[in-house]
Amino acid sequence: MEAFWQDLRYGARSLMRRKGFAGVAIITLALGIGANTAIFTIVNSVLLRPLPYADSEKLMIVGRHFADTSTVSDLSQPKFVFLRDNVKSFEALTATQERLTDSLSDESQSDYIRTILVSADFFRVLGVQPASGRAFTSEEDSPAGESVVILSDGLWRRRFGADAGMIGRTITINNLTHTVIGIMPPNFEFLRPQDVFLPLRTDPASKNEGHNYNVIGRLKNGVTMDQAHSELKVLFDAFRAAHPNSVKEKESFGLISWRSSITGSIRDLLWVLLGAVALVLLIACANIANLQLTRAMARRKELAIRRSLGAGKWRLIHQLLIEGMLLSLVGGLIGLALARLGVSAVLTLAPPGVIPRASEINLDWRVLAFTLGASFLTGIVFSLAPALQLLRVDVNHALKEGGRTTAEIGRGRLRSVLVVVEVALALALSIGAGLLLRTFINLYSVDPGFEARNVLTFEISPRGKNYDSVEKLTDFYRRGLERFSALPGVETAALTNKLPLDAQFNLPYKLMGQTKIAGSVQYRVISPEYFRVMKMTILRGRPFGESDTASSEPVVIVNETFARSNFVGVESLGQQLCAGCEYGDLAMRRIVGVTNETKQKNLSDAAPAAVFIPLTQSPEGVKGTLRQCNFILRTQGDPSLLSAAIRNEVRQLDPIVPMRNLYPMEQLVSRSVASQRFNLILLGVFAALGLLLTAVGIYGVMAYSVSQRTYEIGLRIALGARPGDVLRLIMKQGMTLALIGVAIGVIASFALTRVIKNLLFNVSATDTATFVAVSLALTSIALLACWIPARRATKVEPTIALRSE
Fold first, then answer.
1. Which residue range(s) make up the domain with 386?
2. Are 296 and 776 contacting, i.e. CB atoms less than 8 angstroms apart?
3. Which residues contact 57 (CB under 8 A, 6 or more apart)?
4. Taking the mean position of all CA atoms in its chain, how far away is CA 66?
5. Domain-ending residue, one of 638, 657, 676
6. Do 297 and 393 share a structural domain?
7. What is the rounded distance in angstroms from the CA atom of residue 350 to the CA atom of residue 355?
8. pLDDT score of 410
9. pTM for the whole structure
């Protein structure tokens, strides 16, 4: 211990005397360790940490499973009720539905709220109870149950001032009165922050085949996932026997861990980013090792004297390791501070919903242990090689002035190896970033099927007794279209129940003469000006017009995807179909037009089949499709300038009806590629950091090489070598190392880039153009890093060099 403290004090004094070296080393390490700590903080919180519920490892998603998929999807009401009443492997099952269009209103204001509908066992499954009041009863969860509500702690404080007397009071949601029976604990979240919890009111007699119940179950003690899965297979066979027309081919009941379900969309990206920052840290270690080797040259006489005075090899290694650990620990502490900033930056850059469990991301003991471990390991890695090299110093030779020892030659080779490793790692990182850049460019070049420029959109959800029929809803929307079309700067206005590149809404359909459902289709209710506002093309037939009224023949327009998949070799115009026939739209509609395809889920997926119904012919049975609609306005200039006028017109229409999502349509297109932009920015930043460290590393090695070869260069110039000859000599040495690193990096990248293939679009993981472009770019950077010290070598004065030697 005494030796340890001696070496620690001596190491600290030694580093303080060489502030430049210590500063560069600490900053390099802080960047590498900080980047690793920031990404590990996110990985730990999102992927590794248990969900914030009691015994969360027992929570499972239960749903439909198809043989060709690895996930499960939502259940229908009949399937949920069947499982709830018959399954034995679970303590309880709960079903949930999220609603984003509900409004909370009083005499003075009306606001959108996040609503989650839950079955009575929700709180039992999650192992949580309201902080005050009580949970829902089975009677309240029935179709005839009373209108009750449980508030989130956030809404209770934000809207009601944390009023302790809220239990038993009534609030108005969607113009309907609900009694408050409970308030949830602080910081409780379900998937994301929710405002209110309402009973789901599942109907045991329902025949509704819409699969829109997200089902979660809690396994009983001692029951494994395999055992539960086996029981679900048996129960599915029983359900199929009782309801043969309600199941599809290759369908079954399945389950997956709830945590895996939540994090599945981000898991691959986070592991890729963690691997990327690990490469950055390795590049940083190689750089520091090179600095240490360079610094060791000045210490070879010091260590030779220590050896001659009796210091053992282990004591010298111990001293050098202590100095390296001291550097890495200081770098780690600074890196920890940088990590906090890095996590905040990542969360700020991340599009909404891309990173699940974002509110839980923080630094905990695992992160601190990771940072400490990374610091110690880094210190050992970049100190051990120089320490072992210094032990090869010839004591007698080192005590003399001048001369190159075998150890010096060995260190030169080691520095060269480290440069090759840096270049190879930087190339692998940069190729990954290049492939993501190609993906981003490819997505932006995709035609969405509509023109987003100079289009403004906003969402309205009329609810309550004033809007309890299709007639009242369509009248409200008609008046709104008249008002918005008359605004200065507006060319025309239209309405739709769902925007492209936004939430999907499917309904089943069947063609004339079919007795069974043919499939599902995107169901769109639109006003006649919709295609004009969106600048979509009617390929065949006609658009909707004033003659398409509630009393006229029911009509429909389909997109090209629908026509192509349903009418092979047959003209689609004049054909008849029923869309939403199991939900109340019973009319057989004649196809009067075929329009072009528009992207719906995102720009990378193929455009789905879609049908368009005129607003004036909306059936009463599917009035729910009109509860949430989007106005779209084509403007003569910047659509954002109309925001204030739009808000004023909405207040004039009905001050109780809230409005949200007021933004230019171009923002919706940009949002559709937000996750790819996020991927590119993060990997691009780490690749740029790796390139910078690599360039510094190459420059440092070449600059040191020039300083060591000053006598040789001076002698060559004295014997007649021209500046160009010296330049080529030095450049050849540096570029040889860089090209070897590029070659190794290309080979390694063929394997490493396959890890990100799921993040790519319209580009191969081994895309030749990207590999060549990045290799040339890195070679150019290496060329510049070699040229600066090489040019300095051409200015060596022979007389000064020879005299100093």
1. 1-55+265-402
2. no
3. 50, 257, 259
4. 26
5. 657
6. yes
7. 7
8. 46
9. 0.82
Q: Are residues 280 and 366 in the same domain?
A: yes
User: How many folded domains does the chain comprise?
Assistant: 3
**Do residues 791 and 727 touch, judged by C-beta distance below 8 A?**
yes
Structure-token match 């949830």, residue found? 184
Q: 277 in a domain, yes or no?
A: yes
How much of the chain exceeds pLDDT 90, in percent? Answer: 44
Distances (CA, A) of 231 to 72, 223, 255, 257, 446: 16, 11, 11, 16, 46
CA 186 vs. chain centroid, Å, equals 27
The verdict on 574 and 517 lying in the same domain is yes
Q: What are phi and psi of 664, to 5 degrees?
A: -65, 150
Bridge partners (DSSP) of residue 556 are: 591
Say how far apart CA 331 and CA 337 lie, in whole Å. Answer: 10
Q: Does the pLDDT of residue 333 top 60, yes or no?
A: yes
698 neighbors 423 (Cβ within 8 angstroms)? yes
Question: Other CB atoms closer than 10 Å to residue 45's CB: what's the count?
Answer: 22
- CA–CA dist 292, 387 (Å, integer): 9
Which two structure tokens, joined as six digits, stand for 685? 């930043």
Alpha-carbon gap, residue 247 to 79, rounded angstroms: 10
Tokens of 237: 């066979």
Q: Which residue carries 């780690």 as its tokens?
A: 332
Instruction: Render 108-154 in DSSP notation, one character per residue.
Output: S-EEEEEEEEE-TTHHHHHT---SEE----TTTTSTT---EEEE-HH
543-588 tens-digit pLDDT: 999 889 888 999 999 999 999 999 988 899 999 999 877 666 678 8
> Of 673, 63, 45, whose CA–CA distance to 356 is shortest?
45
Q: Which two tokens stand for residue 26?
A: 């600490």
Token pair 């770019």 is found at: 777
Which band of pLDDT confidence, cut at 50, 70 and 90, is reported for residue 298?
A: low
Same domain, 485 and 621: yes
The angle at the Cα of 610, spanning 112 to 460, to the nearest 5 degrees, equals 15
Last residue of a domain, one of 402, 420, 454: 402
**Residues 109-124 pLDDT 10s:** 778 889 999 999 999 9
Say yes or no: 122 and 237 in one domain: yes
SS3 for 219-287 is: ECCCCCHHHHHHHHHHHHHHHHHHCHHHCCCCEEEEEEEHHHHHHHHHHHHHHHHHHHHHHHHHHHHHH
Cα–Cα dist 679/800, whole Å: 54
- Residue 281 to residue 371: CA distance in whole angstroms: 12
Helix axes 674-708, 406-444, angle to 10 degrees: 160
pLDDT in the model for residue 4: 66
Domain assignment of residue 706, yes or no: no
CB 456, CB 495: distance < 8 Å = no
Helix (H, G, I), strand (E, B) or coil at 63: strand
Answer positive or negative: Cα dihedral of 525, 527, 533, 536: positive
Question: Is 468 in the same domain as 328?
Answer: no
pLDDT digits (tens, 9 = 90+) for 664-694: 999 988 888 888 889 899 999 999 998 888 8
Q: Give the helix/strand (H/E) hosting 630.
A: strand 629-635
Is residue 29 within 8 Å of residue 288, measured between CB atoms?
yes
Does residue 112 share a domain with residue 43? no
Give the tens place of pLDDT for each residue, 373-404.
888 888 887 777 666 666 665 555 555 554 44
